[in-house]
Amino acid sequence: xxxxxxxxxxxxxxxxxxxxxxxxxxxxxxxxxxxxxxxxxxxxxxxxxxxxxxxxxxxxxxxxxxxxxxxxxxxxxxxxxxxxxxxxxxxxxxxxxxxxxxxxxxxxxxxxxxxxxxxxxxxxxxxxxxxxxxxxxxxxxxxxxxxxxxxxxxxxxxxxxxxxxxxxxxxxxxxxxxxxxxxxxxxxxxxxxxxxxxxxxxxxxxxxxxxxxxxxxxxxxxxxxxxxx
Length: 229
Ligand SMILES: C[S@@+](CC[C@H](N)C(=O)[O-])C[C@H]1O[C@@H](n2cnc3c(N)ncnc32)[C@H](O)[C@@H]1O
Hints:
This protein has helices at residues 8-33, 38-47, 66-73, 85-90, 127-137, 155-176, 179-187, 195-204; strands at residues 56-60, 77-82, 97-99, 112-118, 138-149, 207-215, 220-227. The chain is α/β, with parallel strands linked by helices. The chain has one domain (8-227): Vaccinia Virus protein VP39 (Rossmann fold). Strands 3-2-1-4-5-7-6 form a seven-stranded mixed sheet, sandwiched between helices. A hairpin with a 4-residue loop joins strand 6 (207-215) and strand 7. The chain is globular, with a radius of gyration of 17 Å. Bound molecules: S-adenosylmethionine (SAM). Residues 15, 19, 61-63, 66-67, 82-84, 87, 101-103, 118-120, 123-124 line the site of S-adenosylmethionine (SAM). S-adenosylmethionine is lined by residues 15, 19, 61-63, 66-67, 82-84, 87, 101-103, 118-120, 123-124.
């Protein structure tokens, strides 16, 4: 990991204030950055939970609630939890929202049948602690579906992605929102452990049948897992 990136309490403070700052325009910039494809990825990630309608699902690091709203649309009781007040405030039509740190979720153990988390793993200061919290609050047999950015592995796709993510995204972000935040975004992928390491951490947190798949040629990645009984 680059030594210029913050860690510990410094990272948590930076992440919270950065998302508070970009919250009002976050969704619009996100749509542009993913060319609107993220909706489809989220719909599939939720379907992959394979939970009965009415199940109670926690959306961790929900931000402005794209996953939360889609969960509700698909018939789940969805709860949004996020560190940034600004992000939750900017999120419309979120019936249940809680501002909290995902390392200490203010919920009783094993009360959720499902859990989603979109594009936040690299933002957590203590990823292992967050995964352990996920393992605590998801009921045995419950399912989790996590989406995160990735980098395509093959030639032209990879070159195109690098130009887009490292140059176009910071440029568009600085025009429409906050320059510093959208420069940090591509750098923050350095925090992400490998898929193998994440799979191992999920196992340690009490999850089994961990499945990792690349989405759209590796533009995004998804982890699916079941809470052990
Ligand atoms: C890139 S945004 C993703 C938001 C949303 N899940 C989505 O898919 O659009 C990352 C979110 O993680 C939240 N976050 C970062 N660290 C957190 C923590 N320790 N606890 C809870 N939320 C956190 C940020 O506030 C931010 O809203």
